């Protein structure tokens, strides 16, 4: 839904929303990875080959890395724009696409690392949560992600302090104050996404860290499944945050659902003679849509460059 909304609504055609859409793709991938895990766990684990077992774990690792990398990219993009008090970045389309490709390339590489860094030749170094994973790899993996979380939290805290400090000086100007409030609202939405991600994934990473440090004494297997369920629930929380915090996203969601319902009703209903002779809704609304489209295009065509998303007047 988030990806379709960003694709359909031209108001979302900016770097920050493309990165959020890429994070939504990571959430979708996480759901696929978790479904695959549920279909190949428990009594079915013994039927997996070694390669299939590594693939099952790699899917989870890729989804986590992609989510973390997207959040880090969003944090850097927000820091770049907020410091200059812009609503959207002037980053070119090519750079955004290249950034998203790099995020998935790094995620895939991190997902494949356990196939080389494992405990097959040193069984005493094996993890209890992931039996073929090296405990040293789990320590490295958990510390790396927890450190990334800390950096992002510190970065967003600095951004909020800067925005609040700057807003005190522009309070006398109504237009600038409205722009500042828009920036703050967007920052609150992204911060809620970051907070939900940290809350959902931190317990699982702590369990992995304890498993790597203490081994069987950590009793990680007792809490592993609960932490994994909480982590995967993060993929469900993000679209809810978008809906509650962003009015434009909420309206786009409604348009998508209404469009699907209308198509379903049109397939079941046969057209009557009156309906055939009467103008279609598309023909009736065509002048309105053209006017709205011209209104949306006019300011952007006159004030923006060919390969950037700079908002006029910002």
From TrEMBL:
SUPFAM superfamilies: Family A G protein-coupled receptor-like. It is a multi-pass membrane protein. GO terms for molecular function: melanocortin receptor activity. One of its GO terms (cellular component) is plasma membrane. PROSITE patterns: G_PROTEIN_RECEP_F1_1, G_PROTEIN_RECEP_F1_2. Residues 265-314 are annotated as: Disordered. Residues 290-308 have a biased composition (Basic and acidic residues). Residues 273-283 have a biased composition (Low complexity). InterPro entries: GPCR_Rhodpsn, GPCR_Rhodpsn_7TM, Melcrt_ACTH_rcpt. Belongs to the G-protein coupled receptor 1 family. This is Lysophosphatidic acid receptor 1-A-like protein.
């Amino acid at each position: 839904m988030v990806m379709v909304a960003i694709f359909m609504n031209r108001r979302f055609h900016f770097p920050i929303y493309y990165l959020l859409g890429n994070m939504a793709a990571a959430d979708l991938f996480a759901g696929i990875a978790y479904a695959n895990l549920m279909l190949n766990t428990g009594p079915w684990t013994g039927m997996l080959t070694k390669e299939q077992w590594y693939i099952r774990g790699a899917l989870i690792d890729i989804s986590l890395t992609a989510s973390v990398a997207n959040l880090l990219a969003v944090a850097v993009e927000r820091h770049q724009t907020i410091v200059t008090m812009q609503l959207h970045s002037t980053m070119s389309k090519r750079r955004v696409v290249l950034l998203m490709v790099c995020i998935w390339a790094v995620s895939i590489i991190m997902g494949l690392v356990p196939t080389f860094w494992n405990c097959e030749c040193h069984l005493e170094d094996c993890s209890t949560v992931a039996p073929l994973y090296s405990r040293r790899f789990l320590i490295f993996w958990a510390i790396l992600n927890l450190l990334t979380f800390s950096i992002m939290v510190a970065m967003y805290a600095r951004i909020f302090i800067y925005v609040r400090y700057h807003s005190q000086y522009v309070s006398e100007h109504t237009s600038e104050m409205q722009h500042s409030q828009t920036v703050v609202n967007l920052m609150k939405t992204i911060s809620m996404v970051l907070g939900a991600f940290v809350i959902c994934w931190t317990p699982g990473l702590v369990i992995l860290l304890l498993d790597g440090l203490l081994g069987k004494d950590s009793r990680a297997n007792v809490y592993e499944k609960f932490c994994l369920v909480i982590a995967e629930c993060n993929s469900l929380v993000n679209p809810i945050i978008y809906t509650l915090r962003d009015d434009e996203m909420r309206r786009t969601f409604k348009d998508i659902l209404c469009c699907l319902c209308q198509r379903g009703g049109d397939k079941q209903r046969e057209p009557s003679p009156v309906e055939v002779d009467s103008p279609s809704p598309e023909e009736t609304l065509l002048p309105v849509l053209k006017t709205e489209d011209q209104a949306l295009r006019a300011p952007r065509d006159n004030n923006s460059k060919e390969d950037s998303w700079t908002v006029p007047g910002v």
